[in-house]
Design goal:
Layout: E1 2-4, H1 10-21, H2 29-34, E2 45-49, E3 52-64, E4 67-77, H3 86-99, E5 105-109, H4 112-115, E6 121-122, E7 126-127, E8 137-141, E9 151-155
């Protein structure tokens, strides 16, 4: 089952993150960019069975120029449940909830082969303060406004 993340879930999610992603996660640009920032719990979701959290998706506030957005990540699923569709369910459910809000875009650092199925596209006109390979920066436009996204992505 999927539900909104609660503050009381934080410890369980961090333990799951440690188990799934390991200590090398701190070297990844996506983790360094989010360092010392609070995630937006309003849009973050968990997948649970009984009392156990087996999947999590988090979002962080960001901007590109005057456009409000969210950065997706991390998306994690317990290794025992990999390939069962939990990650897809978390992405779809969270994006559907975000679509109802005043958010112009969602960005992430990830693989187009996976996230393309959700409408994310490579955008070579946006960048982070850290060096991130252009083909890894993916954007999903949510706004109906005719916006050309370009410039630096600012997380806050």
């Amino acid at each position: 089952m999927i539900r909104e993340e609660k503050k009381s879930d934080n410890k369980k999610i961090l333990l799951l993150e440690e188990d799934v992603l390991g200590p090398g996660r701190y070297a990844r640009p996506s983790f360094r960019l989010r360092e010392n920032l609070e995630h937006n719990i309003k849009f973050s979701k968990v997948y649970y069975q009984g009392q156990k959290i087996i999947g999590s998706i988090r979002y962080f506030n960001c901007k590109i120029q005057n456009n409000d957005g969210l950065m997706l990540g991390p998306l994690i699923v317990d290794q025992k449940f990999k390939g069962s569709g939990i990650g897809k369910k978390l992405v779809n459910k969270s994006i559907n909830c975000i679509n109802e809000k005043n958010i112009d875009f969602i960005i992430l650092i990830g693989e187009f082969d996976y996230y393309g199925q959700f409408g994310f596209e490579i955008n070579a006109n946006i960048y982070f303060s850290l060096n991130v390979r252009k083909e890894k920066i993916l954007l999903k436009k949510l706004s109906e406004k005719n916006i050309m996204f370009s410039g630096k992505i600012e997380l806050y």
